[in-house]
Design brief:
single chain, alpha+beta, eight-stranded mixed beta sheet, elongated, binds adenosine-5'-diphosphate, binds magnesium ion
């Protein structure tokens, strides 16, 4: 039997900010457990949360970038449950009035454009992290209260590739808007994955299974194993149960945590300790106007305006700083395709070899512009340019300096070349006086001699032209 796959994601991203979302503790990663904490994070009686304005602005930024409707007030809710990862006995989140609703994000899935619909995005506090051992568990409250933005999609993705492309695009959006460092290895990007199967062509969605708290690099494997499991169940005439599962990295399989009947009733109500915060039109306008151009728009523009291939456009737009580097060189008047070649091959190759980012790269945009100037004016060949590029990096010098020092600069001046040509003809006058324009071999000989005498610096085109003129004169003497 064939099935249609449907996937919906709930993506959690830790925002960066100086302090936590409701307390003055630093929002910073620490190897030392329980150091970045305060009485608010620990839920002592009588504490009052104070909202971090920076986090609200960042949440509003993402909502705007995701083309969401935004509410008039920022209002929080209490989600009640008891588990030691949140010692207050509830999580402050947004249920009734999320900061963003009904949005979308356009993405490229391979070479197709796909619109992913966003149900909502909301601001909440992260929980403590627990490490479970055989006879005990350890709790680290450092993460407790870190601003967390949860973005919920509609069930609108229909393949693993679409889900992965969306996740990658969303991650890039967080980086472009600078709301998070999205350090995956530190668990700053995690998601709940909902997946269901329905008979091919069916109008109704199948029963969904939720996989909780999947770190983003495990999403592919978790989906593969869960889809495989559901196919097996359905093919064996076993119904899929609406349930929550977890993914185990070691066995690469999903395991049942709880069924929907066991689902917790969170008894949401408006958080009474946080008064509504007005999201003024001025603030919304300011946020909208300060949004940078996002990756999707850049990719599309690079293809349509610059004539780049999709692959190259994607490669450059993958990192905002690379895109800025690229665009600065192009807007200086350099050929977009030529710059793209340099950036996607040599620049990125060098960055990965040296394991550095573009901001740490000593071959700045200005140096690249200088190097391309040399090529364009015919002063150096493309092959020489490559050598100069690496020399500039190794010796931290400008192309001008390297070209000058190594005497690599091509001679293009006709009169300078003519002087060399005349010397060559004098030295080989026996041959030269028998010059016959019909016989190409002799011209090649003289080009070779001229190149040799100029130590490879004569521009071959100019040298050929001058040689032809002078040889004719010589033979007719
Ligand atoms: P619940 O009430 O179980 O929390 P929601 O309707 O709130 O379910 O949806 C939660 C997430 O599950 C969303 O990301 C949504 O896109 C996804 N989802 C809902 N129904 C399905 C389905 N049939 N198949 C796959 N994903 C689904
Ligand atoms: Mg839900």
């Amino acid at each position: 039997m064939e099935y249609d796959i449907t996937i919906g994601l709930e993506v959690h991203c830790e925002l960066k900010s100086t302090s936590k979302v409701f307390s003055p503790s630093p929002n910073a990663y620490s190897e030392k457990p329980n150091t970045n904490i305060s009485v608010i994070d620990l839920g002592f009686p009588g504490i009052l949360p104070v909202v971090n304005k920076e986090s609200i602005k960042k949440a509003l930024t993402v909502a705007t970038a995701l083309n969401c409707e935004t509410p008039e007030y920022m209002i929080f809710d209490r989600k009640n449950y008891y588990y030691p990862d949140l010692p207050k006995g509830y999580q402050i989140t947004q249920m009734h009035y999320p900061v963003g609703t009904n949005g979308y994000l356009d993405i490229y899935v391979e070479d197709k454009v796909k619109r992913i619909y966003i149900h909502d995005t909301h601001l909440e506090e992260d929980t403590a992290s627990l490490d479970h051992y055989d006879k005990y568990s350890l709790i680290d409250y450092n993460r407790c209260g870190v601003p967390l933005l949860e973005t919920v999609t509609e069930p609108c993705m229909h393949s693993i590739d679409e889900a992965l492309a969306f996740l990658e695009s969303l991650k890039r959006l967080f980086l472009y808007t600078d709301v998070s460092d999205v350090k995956v290895e530190l668990g700053q990007l995690r998601c709940d994955i909902n997946v269901s199967l329905a008979p091919k062509g069916s109008n109704e969605l199948g029963v969904k299974v939720e996989m909780k708290n999947i770190i983003s690099y495990n999403v592919k494997m978790a989906l593969e194993s869960e889809i495989k499991r559901q196919i097996q169940e359905l093919n064996n005439n076993r119904a899929i149960v609406k349930e929550t599962r977890r993914y185990d990295e070691a066995t690469m399989q999903t395991y049942r945590m709880r069924s929907k009947e066991e689902a917790i009733d969170y008894k949401y109500f408006i958080e009474p300790n946080i008064p509504p915060i007005k999201l003024t039109n001025e603030l919304k306008k300011e946020v909208k106007e300060s949004l940078p151009e996002l990756a999707f728009s850049k990719i599309t523009r690079y293809i349509n305006e610059y004539g780049l291939s999709l692959v190259d456009a994607k490669t450059i737009a993958k990192d905002k700083d690379i895109a800025n580097y690229y665009e600065k060189i192009v807007t200086s008047g350099k050929d977009p395709k030529m710059v793209s070649n340099w950036v996607t091959t040599r620049v990125l190759g060098r960055l990965s070899k040296d394991e550095i980012t573009i901001s740490e790269f000593n071959f700045t945009e200005d140096k690249m512009i200088e190097l391309l100037d040399f090529i364009e004016s015919g002063k150096i060949s493309t092959k020489q340019a490559k050598d100069i590029f690496y020399k500039c990096i190794e010796e931290n010098k400008t192309p001008k300096k390297v070209v000058k020092e190594s005497g690599m600069e091509q001679i293009t001046n006709e009169e300078e070349i003519r002087k060399i040509v005349l010397e060559v003809l004098e030295e080989n006058s026996d041959v030269a006086k028998d010059y016959n324009p019909e016989k190409g071999r002799m011209l090649d000989f003289f080009i070779g001699q001229t190149m040799k005498k100029s130590r490879g610096k004569a521009n071959p085109g100019v040298a050929t032209k001058v040689l032809k003129e002078e040889l004719l004169k010589y033979a007719n003497r």
